[in-house]
Give the backbone structure.
Amino acid sequence: MRFAFCLFKYFPFGGLQRDFIRIARECVLRGHQVDFFTMAWEGDIEPHASIHIVPVKGLQNHVRAQQFVEKIQDRLKGYDVIVGFNRMPGLDVYYAADVCYQAKARQQHGLWYRLLPRYRHWVSYEKAVFSADSHTDILLLSPAQKIAFMDCYNTPASRFHLLSPGIARDRVAPANADAIRQERRQELGLLPNELLVLFVGSGFKTKGLDRALRSLAALPYSLQDKTSLYVIGKDDEQRFKKQANRLGVTSQVKFLGGRHDVPHFLLAADLLFHPAYHENTGTVLLEALASGLPVLTTESCGYAHYVIEANAGIVLPAPFRQSDCDLGLFEMLSSLERSSWKSNALSFADRADIYSLPERAVDFIENL
């Protein structure tokens, strides 16, 4: 069969983008043809898929998105299934990696925001996917998503299809995990008694990097002095470098940009710190557990319940309070339970189905 995969922008360090590639590769493995349609492509070219880069103009994201959708409509004719990884009209299947835009906007903004062309555009694209008279099927990553979409658009429950998580197998701690940990820590110049706190995610604001920096600065000096926060992800660093400087923790914070060797950092770290404002899933939480890395995160992450089920860290309750976050970081870095959290995480990753998302997604696309 011929599948069209539509994504506004591809870069190799985003969770959505990694899912996009892994699902496409599973399609190819099963003998299907996959064509990509995107406005921009960064990173390696996929050898077994055709990439169609659609040129667009405009300063605002919604303007470029509208041009993209208009330009690809005729080109999508003749495909067996059109799969979208961003909300847009004309999809057979939508991979729901994001929270409900309308619900989030109503929670976070006033009436003035809903009068903006940007808001009206994104709601119209969301409505094209989720409205009761749409025929788009939705691949859901978190059960909590369905409630918001149904409340806003009266989407029939039969159009939602829940997928299990799907972290890559290279995140699982290998047999030589301890050797890799020691080697990477030596490369970083870390002493045995020093602590590495890891922050992973493109989209520093949404992922709560500002919260992480405040908690680092709130640590007692004796603990802060031997703790480093390593930030991996592609985003504008300047605002957060300035914040680190104001808080007096510049020497403790290392910005590494997007990296392909995240699995080695997961093994080298002592804690994954992910105090996100909102996160539909939070795949990195499961990647940390599979590596045996304890996690400190927030209840607003869709996959936070796995941390509780694994008994491998702390989930901060909602509503978020910075004082809770500060105390959580202190407790996790000073706790004698770190070795227990690690063994609990590895045990959970060994028994839980947290790897089959690409296969289940392609099963559904084929059946459609």
Summary: Residues 15-29 form the longest helix (15 residues). Residues 195 and 227 are 5 Å apart (CA to CA). The longest strand covers residues 33-38. The mean pLDDT is 95.
